[in-house]
Structure formats: C-alpha cells, structure tokens
Amino acid sequence: MAISLRRKAIHTAAVTVFLLCIFLPGADNIFHFAPPVDLMENDPTPLPEFSLSQVFRTFNVFQRGYLEKTYGFRKQLVRWQNILELFWLQSSSHYQAVIRGRGNWLFLAQENAELNVVEDYRSGRLFSPRDLARWVEIYRERQDGLAARGIRYLIVVAPNKHTVYPEFLPPQYNRANPLSRTDQLVTALEAAGLDILDLRPTMLKVKEGALAYYRTDTHWTSFGAFAGYIEIMKRLARWYPDFEPTIRGDYDITITPGLTGGLSSMLALSDLFPEDRVTFVPRTPRRASEVCNDLVVKSLFQPTVVTETGDPGLPTAVIFRDSFAHELMPFLSENFNRAVYLWPYPSTPRELRVFDWAAVDAVKPDLVIDEFVERYFTEYPGHDRSRP
Prior knowledge:
By secondary structure, the chain is an alpha/beta fold. The chain folds into 3 domains: 1-33; 34-72, no CATH class; 117-377, no CATH class. The chain contains 14 helices and 11 strands. The strands form 3 sheets. It has a 7-stranded mixed sheet, sandwiched between helices. The chain has a two-stranded antiparallel ribbon with strand order 1-2. Strand 7 (289-291) and strand 8 (300-308) form a beta hairpin.
C-alpha cells in the first residue's frame, strides 16, 4: 500500500512538473512574470495586423523565428543552457556563436551561417592566385577611380581578437597554417601599390603594456583604438604633413567597472563575466560634434554619422566603416573639417560590401578610408555591384 501511494505521488509530481513546463511559457507571454535577462540578440520581425491579404507575410514572419524568439522564459532558458555548458560541462564548440577560452576569455566563433571566425583564424582555407588577383582588381579600381577625382584612398584593417590574443583560445583551436588569408591579401595589395594599413603589428605591441581587446567583447578597448588612431594619423601625415604635430592629444584614462561585453551578453551571462571599461577623456573640449545628416545612402547596415569641426582648413573625409570604427570616431573626427561615416552591410560570399560612389561624389571628400575588421576584409567578394 505504501509503495503504491509513493508511486502515485511520484506520478502526480511528474505530471504536475510536465504541465508546468507546458503552460508556464504561455502564461509568461500573457502575464510577463519571467525574471529579466540581459540577452543580446536581434528582435523578431513584428507580426502584421491580421487580414487575409497578410496571410503569406504572417507565415514568413513565423518562418523566420518569431515563435522561437517570443517563447515564454526563452531568455532564462538560454542563460541556464549556457551556464550548464560553460561552467558545469566545460563544453564549448566553435559551431556556437561564442566560445569560452582560457582565463574566462570569450571569443566570437560562428558570426553567421557563412562565417566561422575560428575557422578563419585557423587558416584552413587560403586564397588561390585567381582569388588574390580578383581582390587586387577590386581595390585598384577603387583607388584609380578616387585618384581620377583627386581623392586619396587608404585601406585600414583592424585585427580579429583571435589574432591578437591566440594564447587565450581553447588549445584545440591551433593554427593549421602559419600563413593566413590576411597575410596573403595584405601582401598582394602592397605589391600592387595600394595604400593599406595593417594594424595587426600595432595591436601586438599594445598588448605588451595594456589590454588591447576586451576579455568579454569582440572589439578593441580604447587603448587599442587609440593606438590604431595613432597609426592611421601617421600614415595620413605622408599626405597631410600638418597632421603630424596634432597626432597624440592629451587624455585622462579612466577605468570603471560595469562593462557589459557583447559576447557575454550573447550568452545572457554578463553578470558572470564582469569587466572594466576603459575610457579616454580629453583634457580639452573636443572640437568635432555630430551634425544633421542630409546624405541619402543606399544599403546601410547602420545610420550614417556626420561630424564637423568648423575648420575649413582641414580636409574632408568619407569613412566606410564597421563596428571597430566606433571607438575610432572620437579621435579621427578631430582632424577633419567634415567626416562622413558610412556603415554598409558586410561582405558575404555572394556580395561585396557596398562602396557607394554616389555618396563619395555627393560629399566630394579629400580622403576616403576603407576600414574593415579582419574577418570581413578577407570574406571573398563574390559579385561587386559598386563599381565606379
């Protein structure tokens, strides 16, 4: 009798737990009582208003992950799964978005369905001579097209975090080849007479005395960004000698707790991976300020930013950028009368990042800077629809 009652109690408890698991997500969607969780991800596309004419559009929204991202308790479940994998099972695969390395360093792994940053670092795939010739053709066309307009052109490559801090990667992710695609491409472009600034050696010097990249983010710190800015200005001083005496500037460096790193936020574990933020505070007020943007640009990933110093004696620049330019902008903007920062969609195997000639012709700059993070600099171009 006692055994029968015990089994009945166990079965009742199991059914109760099962029903809770089934009904809690739906209840949370109505009453919103799940604890808040900081999870960095793209919001789902909103559902259109219901009507017969919107049936197919509604189906497409559902098909693109709407239910997955609006599932009750989803963020909490993502957090629990990552705690289980990283801290209990000590499991980390480069086919996940983020991997945990040595010393609680986090690294971007699967950037998207087509770009695995760890595989890119390991250099298992190199460019063929035909690939390199195609790259050189693309960048030479840009440089020649700009030169015909009287515009200087500089390519700037910001390294992947993996390149600067490989010692903190999990040991199984060693380099398969000492030569990388970045090595190949930089060498080919330099040999073709392109002006290219490879910031990998600079970041390796920075790390000897300071933290060049955040432990919980994929980007460089202000130490790294400032060193990159110095090297950019040194290169530009070949064309604009007046830049030389103004390169450094005076800054106070502050270290404050509470950085929410992008990689730790992608895991919903920013509280378990605390880190300090590095900030350079200018000792004199900045001259450059953001102004209203009246430039209509196609194929942008993020809005255009325009800054002005009000000094007509300084050159004007167009900067094609990505997220690594965010920390560069406060430093660079001080050196231009007008700086226009354009953030196009990154390159994919199907299509090259847009180089918007219409925007260049509208601004009529003295200088164009093409800034890439390493993993997108080497993403094979595919179709180029941005020829001059």
